[in-house]
């Protein structure tokens, strides 16, 4: 009824870990191998900004409307730009809005949406000596500041629509002012206070007898910087305590990439590949290259799964990539155009 031998658990775990079917079809379970890397802050307003674009907020298919969100990393100052398109031109215009007010920032952090990864947006950044940093695919925590604002923004705009006394488009400027007048939980000061040394209020909360308060701007910024660093250290400790130790890949290793759930059915493979690690980036990220094309991908460690050793395509090398157009022959099958492993039944 029972079967046992010495080191049975270790053997079974190794056997399952080298099963290509399990690697491709099974989702991650247990503690995630991840580590939090807070972005170093500087106490200079508009040095580093985060950008993102909302999904469709309203309108029919032919009249979609979006909002580009820009937030200053230090002061948390928010700029909102209304657009009918989510393309490179609209993205550049959203950035120009901030540049016209505060000049060009030193660094921009954004995700890898087409509008931010477009040639037009990259050229604009290069012309104005702006360092563009695109986060790894699927790692929204790397752009967490703007994601948090996006969540608050959608709730506020929804409240405006439900009230039905005016459209969210008309209320967008008031929403921006309200965000910039609100005291931030981390900095203990409002974005307006840190950016301009002025304590502001939303228009409907201003009283005629109210006078401007004097703000010691250097002191407020110094205290805000200390609060930011303390909070970053606390968040890192809390995040890392619930995660597993990261077993890093090396250059030349083969790996599978996690598929986006929103683009898959419930029974679709959870991972695709294989891909080869061509560079190791800071923050436990990898630059991976497809085996049947020259396309590269940037993924964080928690979105990557190591290939089983016996499934590694040993016969594939760089010279083969230029000659093969439709598929790459391996010692266990081939890789189709989508980068999915197709096992050769003759080898079973």
Automatic annotation (TrEMBL):
According to its UniProt entry, the protein's GO biological process terms are: DNA integration
- From the UniProt record, which GO molecular function terms apply? nucleic acid binding
Specify the superkingdom: Eukaryota
Give the Integrase catalytic domain ranges: 41-199
Pfam families in UniProt: rve
Instruction: State the InterPro entries in the record.
Output: Integrase_cat-core, Retrovirus_Pol_polyprotein, RNaseH-like_sf, RNaseH_sf
PANTHER family found in the cross-reference section:
PROTEIN CBG26694 (PTHR37984), PROTEIN NYNRIN-LIKE (PTHR37984:SF5)
Q: What is this protein called?
A: Retrotransposable element Tf2 protein type 3
Q: Which gene encodes it?
A: Tf2-11_8
């Amino acid at each position: 009824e029972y079967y046992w031998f010495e080191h049975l658990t270790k053997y079974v775990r190794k056997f399952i870990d080298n099963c290509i079917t399990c690697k491709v079809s099974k989702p991650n379970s247990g503690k995630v191998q991840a580590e939090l890397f807070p972005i170093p802050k500087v106490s200079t307003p508009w040095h580093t900004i985060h950008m993102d674009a909302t999904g469709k907020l309203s309108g029919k298919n032919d009249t979609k409307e979006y909002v580009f969100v820009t937030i200053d990393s230090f002061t948390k100052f928010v700029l909102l730009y209304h657009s009918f398109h989510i393309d490179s031109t609209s993205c550049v215009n959203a950035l120009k809005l901030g540049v016209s007010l505060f000049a060009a920032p030193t660094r921009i952090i954004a995700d890898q949406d087409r509008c931010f990864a477009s040639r037009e947006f990259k050229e604009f950044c290069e012309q104005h000596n702006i360092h563009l940093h695109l986060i790894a695919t699927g790692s929204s925590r790397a752009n967490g500041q703007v994601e948090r604002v996006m969540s608050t923004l959608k709730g506020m705009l929804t409240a405006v629509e439900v009230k039905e006394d005016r459209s969210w488009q008309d209320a967008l400027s008031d929403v921006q002012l309200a965000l910039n007048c609100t005291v931030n939980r981390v900095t203990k000061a409002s974005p307006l206070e840190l950016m301009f040394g002025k304590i502001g209020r939303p228009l409907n909360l201003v009283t005629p007898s109210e006078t401007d308060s004097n703000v010691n701007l250097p002191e407020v910024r110094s205290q805000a910087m200390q609060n930011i660093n303390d909070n970053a250290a606390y968040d890192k400790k809390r995040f890392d305590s619930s995660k597993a130790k990261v077993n890093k890949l090396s250059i030349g290793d083969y790996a599978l990439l996690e598929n986006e759930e929103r683009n898959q059915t419930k029974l679709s493979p959870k991972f695709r590949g294989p891909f080869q690690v061509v560079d190791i980036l800071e923050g436990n990220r990898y630059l991976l290259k497809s085996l049947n094309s020259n396309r590269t991908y940037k993924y964080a460690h928690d979105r990557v799964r190591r290939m089983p050793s016996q499934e590694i395509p040993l016969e594939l090398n760089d010279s083969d990539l230029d000659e093969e157009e439709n598929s790459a022959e391996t010692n266990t099958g081939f890789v189709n155009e989508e980068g999915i492993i197709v096992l050769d039944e003759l080898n079973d």
